[in-house]
Amino acid sequence: PGGSSEAISGAVRLKMLSRVLYFVACIAILLAGAAEAFTTPTLGSMLTSRRAAVSTLQMAHHPNPKGAKKARKNRPRKSRPSDINRAAPPFNPDPLAEARQSLPDFEVVGSDEMSAFVKVEQDGNTFYHVKTPFLAAN
């Protein structure tokens, strides 16, 4: 009966020892990671860490052209003789210029025709409004 109690206590001791060793190993790993944060960096470690960071960084070296710059860069080139010798298409650059010239800037109204208008002065400006509303002819 005495031998079996020693065997049980040995197994319990072994289990407790393995738990303590596991706990100590976990604490050592945590402390090693925390201790690295408090060490002063050396020149070699700074260069290797910077080189590693630059090599993994995937950034553009220059911005992409946008808007008119991209359109100018990608425009079709005049490479063929038919393109090079082609004249500009005939079109009127200001189609409303003739209409603007034909319309008068203002129209002089005689005093006898002023009876159809009401004079309104507001904030130092003078406006003339039609007394009767406009009715479309049927």
What is the end-to-end distance? Answer: 127 Å
Order of helices and strands: HHHHHEE
Please state the overall shape, judged from the principal axes of the Cα atoms: elongated
Q: Detail the poorly predicted runs.
A: none
Helix-strand blueprint:
Layout lengths: L1 H36 L5 H14 L11 H6 L7 H4 L12 H6 L14 E6 L2 E6 L8
Antiparallel strand pairs: 1-2
Outline the structure in words.
By secondary structure, this protein is mainly α. The protein is 48% helix and 9% strand. It has helices at 2-37, 43-56, 68-73, 81-84, 97-102, and strands spanning 117-122, 125-130. The protein has a two-stranded antiparallel ribbon. The protein is elongated, with a radius of gyration of 47 Å. The termini are far apart. The mean pLDDT is 78.
Could you give a short description of this structure?
The protein has 138 residues and is mostly helical. The chain has five helices and two strands; from the N terminus they run αααααββ.
Tags for this entry?
two-stranded antiparallel ribbon; mainly alpha; single chain; 138 residues; 5 helices
